Amino acid sequence: MRVVIQRVKRASVKVEDQVIGQIGTGLLVLAGFELSDTQEDFDWIINKLIQLRIFPDDKGVMNVSVQDIKGEILVVSQFTLHASTKKGNRPSYIRSSPPETAKIQYENFVLSLKNKYFSPVQTGEFGADMKVELLNDGPVTICMDSKNKE
């Protein structure tokens, strides 16, 4: 599982010009899944995500987590996170889970996150053509891969 985490002042996602998810201060999480992802991958990402100290403390040092500030989280599925650009100029998405599997993985990830994190968790719509707007705070953007735990 791969995620791109962005610290935001606000973020929203629209489908057909209708806002279906929006948050204030918190994290926008773009999530991509591959066939080998399991609950263990989801749990590792979730634990890191909610404990990641990327919000400023009272001295302006990134030392506070989204959990500490009771921030909100918006999760948007994004299969392109598993794009391979090794050959040619057209990305290959062979590592991404097929849509029917990825939808189940996405729903399980979001449910696990909601069960572990008690502040608001909003979502996009799996498989839809979404428009995501955000005000990145910092900017702070972090990439994580459950298969490459750096």
Q: Could you tell me the radius of gyration in angstroms?
A: 15 Å
Most strands sheet: 6 strands, mixed
Provide the CATH topology. Answer: D-tyrosyl-trna(Tyr) Deacylase, Chain: A
Count of DSSP-assigned helices:
3
- Low-pLDDT segments, ≥5 res: none
Overall morphology: globular
Please name the fourth-level CATH homologous superfamily.
D-tyrosyl-tRNA(Tyr) deacylase
Number of strands: 8
The level-1 CATH class: Alpha Beta
Helix content: 10-25%
Mean pLDDT across every amino acid position? 95
Number of domains: 1
Architecture (CATH level 2) name: 3-Layer(bba) Sandwich
Order of helices and strands: EEEHEEHEHEE
Beta-strand level of the residues, as a percent range?
A: 35-45%
Structural class: alpha/beta
Distance between the termini: 13 Å
